[in-house]
Design a protein that fits this description.
heterodimer, A: 111 residues, mainly beta, 6-stranded mixed beta sheet, 3-stranded antiparallel beta sheet, B: 119 residues, 7-stranded mixed beta sheet, 4-stranded antiparallel beta sheet, 11 strands, globular
């Protein structure tokens, strides 16, 4: 049972947009602007695509965007491409008791 | 260029202690704001944060595993070592080390190493 709740799956056709939610509590997502998103392809290491809720590391396409409202963070992938098919994980700082907690992951399928 | 690489046994027996080493380059673990963390992913399951070593040598552990984990560093070798005691088959997973940057993000990851716990 992961500390952050994500939908197990999401899908969209090429060119469409899809949004993945990540719901926590006031002790993690709602309490800090330290939400990150990671993209993970099978057999590969996770890749940071969003940090501090909405910032993108250098090299990450602006098709990826993040936001937060209350205890729920969201990742939006616009203009879906075949290579976006992967698992996506959110994480959040969780205070002094636990540095970071992860979501259960969402499998994004590009139809 | 920043790189991290995990090394250690691929197979351990139940009750044994696992020792994993993360060898990194391209940054110093003593730089303010940085650190090295360990994260694992059991087959078909989600990522799970395990431990973190901060730039100032402070340490943080997953509350559910803290009694079994120890994280240390060898600055001269650019290595961070994770030990996990009393291994169980449920600990079978790919173990990753990653660089922690400010704002609780892991911005560079190793390739991961699969550890199987079986007798």
């Amino acid at each position: 049972q992961s500390a952050l709740t994500q939908p197990p799956s999401a899908s969209g056709s090429p060119g469409q947009s899809v949004t993945i939610s990540c719901t926590g509590t006031s002790s993690n997502v709602g309490g800090y602007n330290y939400v990150s998103w990671y993209q993970k392809h099978p057999g590969k290491a996770p890749k940071l695509i969003i940090y501090e809720v909405s910032k993108r590391p250098s090299g990450v396409p602006d098709r990826f965007s993040g936001s937060k409202s209350g205890n729920t963070a969201s990742l939006t992938v616009s203009g879906l491409q075949a290579e976006d098919e992967a698992d996506y994980y959110c994480s959040s700082h969780a205070g002094s008791n636990s540095f970071v907690v992860f979501g259960g992951g969402t499998k994004l399928t590009v139809l | 260029q920043i790189t991290l690489k995990e090394s250690g046994p691929t197979l351990v027996k139940p009750t044994q202690t696992l020792t994993l080493t993360c060898t990194f380059s391209g940054f110093s673990v003593t730089t303010s704001g940085l650190g090295v963390g360990w994260i694992r992913q059991p087959p078909g399951k989600a990522l799970e944060w395990l431990a973190l070593l901060y730039w100032d040598d402070d340490k943080s552990y997953s509350p559910s595993l803290k009694n079994r984990l120890t994280i240390t560093k060898d600055t001269s070798k650019n290595q961070v070592v994770l030990t996990m005691t009393n291994m169980d088959p449920v600990d079978t997973a790919t173990y990753y080390c990653a660089r922690k940057n400010v704002a609780a993000r892991f911005d560079y990851w190793g390739q991961g190493t699969l550890v199987t716990v079986s007798s």
